[in-house]
Specification:
- 88% of the residues lie in helices and 0% in strands.
- The two termini are 33 Å apart.
- With 114 residues, the protein is mainly alpha-helical.
- It has a domain at 52-114.
- It has five helices and no strands.
Length: 114
């Protein structure tokens, strides 16, 4: 039953953001930029484990991994403004984001953070 609730909440979030973005990209962006997914993950993790240390560790890991995720939000609009095909732009932006994640994880491991 918990999995069904998680799936429904996640789906509602995604649908709400995309519907609101149809009317106002700025309002959609506000909702999408809120750490709702992280908050839901914190609540579910704590509810299931009662372990605040796990929640704390997840929060710190999310913090470090938000930085490379910004690559997507910089590269995608840049490519689209250059009149590149949407799917190609999205693919390139995703590939560069994966590369950014890889570089960040490598760097964090080198520094002993992960």
């Amino acid at each position: 039953m918990q999995y069904i609730i998680k799936i429904i909440l996640s789906a509602v979030l995604i649908v709400a953001i995309s519907e609101i973005a149809k009317r106002s990209s700025f309002m959609g962006a506000i909702l999408a930029s809120l750490p709702m997914t992280s908050i839901l993950a914190f609540v579910f993790l704590y509810y299931e484990t009662q372990d605040s240390e796990k929640v704390s560790a997840l929060s710190i890991d999310i913090f470090w991994l938000v930085i490379p995720s910004l690559t997507l939000f910089l590269v995608l609009p840049f490519l689209l403004k250059k009149d590149m095909n949407f799917y190609l732009s999205l693919g390139i932006a995703c590939a560069l984001t994966v590369a950014s994640y890889s570089a960040m994880i490598f760097g964090l491991k080198k520094m002993g953070i992960m």
